[in-house]
Amino acid sequence: MKISPIKVLLLSFMVSLFAFGGQALAAAGDAVRTAEPFTGKVLVEGLDGPWEMLWGPDNMLWVTERLGKRIVRVDPASGAVREAARIDRANAAGGHEGILGLALAPDFLKKGGKNYVYVVYTYKSSPSQSKSDFKRIARFRFDAKSEKLVDEKVILDKIPAGDDHNAGRIVFGPDGKLYLSLGELGHNQGANMLLPNEAQRLPSAAEVRKSDWSSYVGKVLRIEPDGSIPRDNPVLDGVRSHIFTYGHRNPQGLVFVGENLFSCEHGPSTDDEINLLVSGGNYGWPIVAGFRDNQAYTYADWSKANKSAIDKYDPNQPNIIPEGVPVIRELDWNAPNFKEPLKTFYTVPNSYNFKDSRFEKLPYLFWPTVAPSSITYYPADGAIEAWRNSLIITTLKTGELYRMKLNADGKTLQGDAIPYFHTANRYRAAVVSPDTKSIFVMTDKGGNVLDRNFMPTSQVENSGAIIVFTYAGEGK
């Protein structure tokens, strides 16, 4: 259903800064208008926990509804929603569960193509499970006549899942392989604090022979379209598996720019990351957050803590580590294949004050992180000159879209991240229209975010929406 014109948003370019040393965030009155003018409108609202959004060759937006257990196609002109599939066996009880990533085969809707669609979803192996214990990649065939997804076939199953940090982004690479991001299930924090974090654990040869994928947490996988292990995948500790990279926390964004694979990853209380992923790379988590610099993060292994220490655990003060918790400092650890991020949001000194009385009810919204939820690419020949050859990152906490310019080498970043389109919404994903003049941004159904005055709120402005930001300047 298309939203009435009264819902049209009046947009300006908002500047927000996490000023270190306890200084307040910039207020809305500090907003300035960018040299790149945009108009904004709400295309549709009421999607049930939308998570993935792709622009298909049928000129429709393909959207997964994490909570609604549906895959829908949205008309980018009218906002009309058409259901393509419902997956009732998906489990969407928690905040990170349900239908997650979706990828269209490279030959989708092309002559001779099989019209395959690949979907990632979590499920419970038995009704007695309190939360999802597995996720899988399922392949569907799109029947163009009925406009439905049919003939589900599971190509990779029993990937560990939980109620936190499932990640779940899936993309095709230029090599024809599938790449899947997997979080470490939030172990060693919150309600899962006593569970060991296994982002560094690699599978044994015996596990791979038995199709035991229990080590596939905190990893990015590289997979043949039939679910098998590519013969040229990296050999890690003497074993070849689906694992492409490891040492990740919750990498919710993947995008290829040419042959280069970039990811965005949620940090703990600091150091959200933008990474260039290379075969066999170790990205450090849980021992390293961001750069290996001993700044504002120390790995505390709560799964090995004594009871008196566990009783003092405070999730709102993650950097206060009581006696009785084993720790590893970042500079006390190294690996020959460790890869540092291209950029962090943000690396702060050990003296940083993580508390602010105005954020007492939602303290983590004050932490120097933005919660990057997806990453996409604005092409080098796009209509908006300033945006050309840029990565675009959506954020959940700050309700903004960040643009970062790539250098000519296509592997490194230049300058600072530039924020756009601040609203009291959790931005889940973004796509660029084929004419490159519009950015379609999808919002969460609900959650905590910074409002238009950059203060904490649990009231989002546009629930389960797709908002269209269109460039109003002169084209190229």
Task: Describe the protein in words.
- With 476 residues, this protein is mostly beta strands.
- The chain has one domain (5-301, 333-471): 6 Propeller (Neuraminidase).
- It is 2% helix and 34% strand.
- It contains 2 helices and 30 strands.
- The protein has a 4-stranded antiparallel beta sheet, with no helix packed on it.
- It is globular and about 65 Å long.
- Mean pLDDT is 92; it is low at 1-34.
Summarize the structure.
With 476 residues, the protein is an all-beta fold. Helix content is 2%, strand content 34%. The strands form 9 sheets. It has a 4-stranded antiparallel sheet, with no helix packed on it.
CATH superfamily: TolB, C-terminal domain
Question: Major sheet: size, sense and barrel closure?
Answer: 4 strands, antiparallel
CATH topology grouping? Neuraminidase
Uncertain regions: pLDDT < 50 for 5+ in a row? 1-34
Share of helix, binned = under 10%
SS class: mainly beta
Instruction: Please tell me what the overall shape is.
Output: globular
CATH architecture: 6 Propeller
CATH class equals Mainly Beta
Q: What is the end-to-end distance?
A: 33 Å
> What is the number of independent domains?
1
- Average pLDDT, to the nearest integer? 92
Number of helices: 2
**Approximate strand percentage:** 25-35%
Radius of gyration: 21 Å
Output the strand order for the largest sheet: 1-30-27-26
Please give the oligomerization state of what you see.
Answer: single chain
Number of strands: 30
